[in-house]
Amino acid sequence: MASHSFSALINLRLLDLSGNQLALIHPEALSIPGSPLQELNLSHSLYNFTALMDLTTALRWGGLQGLLCLDLSGNHLALLPPGLFSHLPNLKQLVLTNNSLLSVYTGTFSGMNHLEVLDLTYNDFRTFRDDALRELENLGNIQILLGNNPYTCSCESHDFVAWLNESRAQVDVDAVRCASPGGLTDTRLRRLGVQAIGCVVPVQAEVSDLTLQTSYVFLGLVLGFVGMLFLFVLYLNRKGMKNWIIEMRNACRDVLEGYHYRYEIDSDPRLGYISADNAGRRAHRHLGLSLLQQQPNDTCIIPSDTQVKQVKTTTPVNS
Predict the structure, then answer these.
(1) CA 201 centroid distance within chain
(2) Is pLDDT of 192 > 60?
(3) pLDDT in tens, 25-82
(4) Domain ranges (residues) in the chain
(5) The pTM is what?
(6) In this structure, is the dihedral angle defined by the CA atoms of residues 76, 81, 86 and 87, taken in order, positive or negative?
């Protein structure tokens, strides 16, 4: 589709391009002065995913503010780029049936404030997760066709089942049925209990969990009571505790002052000479005592400037 292929058709309301194999679409291929186009049929017409990206650009630059219906069925679409339809503000009907869509992502249907019908039948949806459900819920009270998809009825479908039961949208709930597992084949998802989809915790596990929670609560109460008693005892002995703290502080202060005083004395350089002199005197005194111990008992030592004399003791004679 070349640029401005239909620009001369200023009264064009319906454009049917179904059954083609469009491989290349110019960004301004759908640009028509006055945007008179109201219905665009592109079913079974896109050659591959590259053509879908070209179509996204063409819808953005085509100026299709008046488009009311868009049919993209049968194009083997596996995903929809976010914002694909954001430039179609007045679109009322969007047909995406008979594709290969697996999920709806955030922003897929953004900007579609006037949409009335969304057809997602005959795709490959297994379930819808939280982000997809929010995207569908944002569309408001519209008709959403979700039937004839291979839904898996497991615990992962719990949110989808809850949405089917509570959503304000008009969903074809009778056509939304389980394709697997085998025991739930062709069963309607709506009103399907959590036990049927395997989301129920065994009773024994629930009882054990409840017992464990009760034990934790009792332990918390006991610890809280002990803590209250401890605080009450501290309150009653607050004066004694205060005096004890003051005494400990004073004792620590005295010890620190003693250490500080000793540090000042040891660090004074003037005391180094005194310490050396005292050490010399102690050494001379120790040498003298050693010499005295080496002499016999009957000898005495006279200072060095006198003669050393030996005095022998004699035994007195009895008269």
Answers:
(1) 26
(2) yes
(3) 999 999 998 889 999 999 999 988 889 999 999 999 888 999 999 999 999 999 888 8
(4) 204-270
(5) 0.61
(6) negative
